[in-house]
Amino acid sequence: MNRGLALKLLGWLRPIAPIILALLIGALILAALGRDPSAFYLQILRRTVLSPSGAQEVLVLMAPLLCLAASLIVCFRAGLWNLGVDGQYMLGGVFTSAFAAAATASMPYWLAIPCLVAIGIAVGVVWSMVPALLRAYQGVNEIISTLMMTFLALSTGAFLIKTVFDDPESPVPQTIFLPIEDRLPRLFDSLVHIGVIAAVVIVLAVHVIMTRTAFGLKLQIVGHNPRAAEHAGLNVKRLTLAVFAISAGLAALGGAIDVLGVRGVVRADWHPSFGLLVVPLVFLARFHGVAVIAFVAFFAVLTIGGESASRRADLPHDFLLIMMSLILLILALTDHLISRLKGR
Amino acid sequence: MHQHVHAGAPAAPVVSLSGITKRFGPVLANSDVSLQLYAGEVHALLGENGAGKSTLIGILSGLLQPDAGSIVVRGQTVSIAAPREAIALGIGTVFQHATLVPTLTVVENLLLGQPWWVRLRRTQTLERLAELSRLLGVSIDPDATAGELSLGEQQQIEIIKALWRGERVLILDEPTSMLTPQGVRELGVVLNRLRSEGMAIVLITHKLHEVLEFGDRLTVLKLGQVVGALEPQRFQEMTEDQARRFIVSTMFGRKEDSVDSAASARAPVAAAKRQTSVLQQPALLESRGICTVRRQREVALDGVSFTVHSGEIFGVAGVDGNGQKQLAEVIAGQMQASSGQVFFDAHDLSSASVAQRQALGLRYLTDDRLGEGTVGSFSVALNSVLKRVGEAPFWQRGWTRDAQITSYASELIATYDVRTPGPDAPIGTLSGGNIQKLLFGRELIRAPKLVVYNKPTYGLDVANIQAARDRIRAQAQQGVAAVIISTELEELVELCDRVAVMSRGRMVGIIEACDDYAEAIGGLMVGGDSR
């Protein structure tokens, strides 16, 4: 076979083959447990893409995940490991929620929503400046510092909800409830809110900025070879701060969209942990904006459909988690194998 | 100078190398080299960078196999196929770079390398350590952490490691390059003891005073050949000044049959003519007392001052690692000076960023082409505009214009004869010479005023070396100043109006082009920091 054609085929195979393989292995496990694999997979589809409300749920779940994906694409392309996205997400959500009721009551709706989103983003950005400044000026490893900051953010958020942001009328510690009519506007009476559209646009915009602009190229130079960036006269310190600000801002925006679009309230025991789930998806998509949308959609379908399918197959919820980890693992392995084949 | 009197009848050599020839592709690293090592003698091995010393030592320590020639150890012809075999023959080598694990203790370091299935023999190790410590005349705490010892003490442990399996021959590759004067004195004491114990020692060094102080016998290599040797008897009879003159002239002197030297013999005359006019040009770059803070194990700059005039080619000579790279980085703005100032074209550069210096017409062509000069996975085209990201016409309001970048890169590729499959090929797939050509183009194409070249021809083939030198000279004709950092003396002699010599972070002297240019520079290089 012609080499060019073979490479093209492998390129197409790269995202699809691992998914098929993972589903096959899942089927084997299901069969071994005495369940009908085809029924299981069919239920996943029936519950999600084949049902109007299921499809809407998938889209709604995708919104915060896409914000996190955009956040991670920016920092990974710049070679920085902002693993504190969960903390930034949490604080963005908590602060947005804390001021949501007051803002919508005191300002016109069209002004209140952007203000609340801005508050969420601002909190995330400020929060990320601790690891950002440490990294830029002291060379402190951001992997450790951002993970520690997440730990701190989760407890700080819970602490704030139990103290200053607590709704005195509610028996459990939580922020003041945001009525459904004050949340993000919805499209055509569906569950899908405007945050979903915003998230898709943001991912695509991030992709274009990273690949088509001078700013994106500067970040990529820093990411690929920081010493070359220094040598070329780039201000690596300032770029590092910018990367953290953008990345954290996008993660916090995810939290704000989650709260304003779906939750409406944050309880003290809220522990968002989407960030570390999105990390492998972003890597599998090779930091590509369009590819990451596909991976996030696949992930959302599995989450929502799998929940229902496991219940119906009388399997514990943990089975779904096993399936998903397995799929991610196989995705990573086949991806590696295919790129090795291609490299030859 | 030599306290050691040798018995009249010459003993048989412990190790005898004869007719050793080793070729790496087109480069003849060793050509018919013969060398004898005798018990109770320090054999000093001298030569410039690339003279073939490391190859010869590699062959002796089993790292390299000679293409021709024979090795005789204690009367037996042997082939040393692996470092293990060299050690078994009692030939131990202390390489230039540290091999100790800094977080382990001395005794743990000595236990390393035993097979994993045997129990660690701590008692035997301690006994052997004590035995060798006595031999060296040093005292070492076996439980001290290696990284916390002084460099001199670390080196004593390296020597002990080299002698661990047998003490017959010890090879020391530039043992004093990292040591303080105190450490050098201690090493001298150790060497004297080992010599009186009857060991054969090979001492590789760049420093003349060390040869005069420690050496009994001397061999000078140049371009892979033995160009000079002194027997102990003759060496002893010479006065210090005679020996010094002999070494400098064999190391750096002209040889009639050498093409390179013939070219460089003509060059100084031309350079000297140019130089008088060039030095009357206004000063372009002025460095006043630059000092830097030491980074890890590197040397720090210590009060470096010099001036470069418009159109001047200013050379910086010295053994690698004596602060040349730091000097280049301070000028380029990549490294902060802790004190001192740099002026360029009437601007004080103290607080200028790398980008601001570039805008003033100051360019730095790095020697680390893949490490910092380029982004290996990026295309040739992107790398050609790496220092101009965001500038018109390649970017317009921040948006990348691929067509402009590609056409500019194609022009650069054609003008500078870069051999690449195309502007889109990742630059990491190109050969070092072709990457260097692109970097030359990148720095020279937009009106520089001064270019700092760090090892501009390192790793290039003969044709490219000549092309690079011609470019530097052509730029100088147009008034572009150059600072050339190089370890190749021939190159500096051929190109430079003046050459400064660096040693341990200091500029020990500046030499103007003259008749015995190479010898004058060489003399400073080998004797630079002693007196």
Q: Work out the largest interface and the residue count of each chain.
A: A-B, 18 and 28 residues
Give the beta-strand count of chain B.
22
| Overall average pLDDT of chain B | 84
CATH topology category name of the largest domain in chain B: Rossmann fold
- Silhouette of chain A: globular
Quaternary form:
heterodimer
How confident overall, as mean pLDDT of chain A?
88
| CATH fold assignment of the largest domain in chain A | ABC transporter involved in vitamin B12 uptake, BtuC
Which range does the strand content of chain A fall in? under 5%
CATH top level of the largest domain in chain A? Mainly Alpha
Strand content of chain B: 15-25%
Overall tally of structural domains of chain A = 2
Number of strands of chain A: 0
Any idea what the radius of gyration of chain A is?
A: 21 Å
Helix fraction of chain B, binned, reads: 25-40%
The separation of the N and C termini of chain A measures 15 Å
Count of separate DSSP helical elements of chain A = 13
Summarize the biggest pleated sheet of chain B: 6 strands, mixed
Protein structure class of chain A: mainly alpha
Q: Using the CA coordinates, give the radius of gyration of chain B.
A: 25 Å
Protein model, in words:
- The complex is a heterodimer of chains A (344) and B (531).
- With 344 residues, chain A is mainly alpha-helical.
- Chain A has 13 helices and no strands.
- In chain A, α4 (85-106) crosses α10 (236-263).
- Chain A is globular, with a radius of gyration of 21 Å.
- Chain A starts with a helix and ends with a helix.
- Chain B is an alpha/beta fold.
- Chain B has three domains: 15-252, P-loop containing nucleotide triphosphate hydrolases (Rossmann fold); 259-361 and 449-527, Rossmann fold, CATH 3.40.50.300; 374-446, no CATH class.
- Chain B contains 19 helices and 22 strands.
- Chain B has a six-stranded mixed beta sheet, sandwiched between helices. In chain B, strands 16-19-20-13-21-22 form a six-stranded mixed beta sheet, sandwiched between helices.
- In chain B, β19, α17 and β20 (481-485) form a beta-alpha-beta unit.
- In chain B, α5 (151-163) runs parallel beside α6.
- Mean pLDDT of chain B is 84; it is low at 1-9 and 255-266.
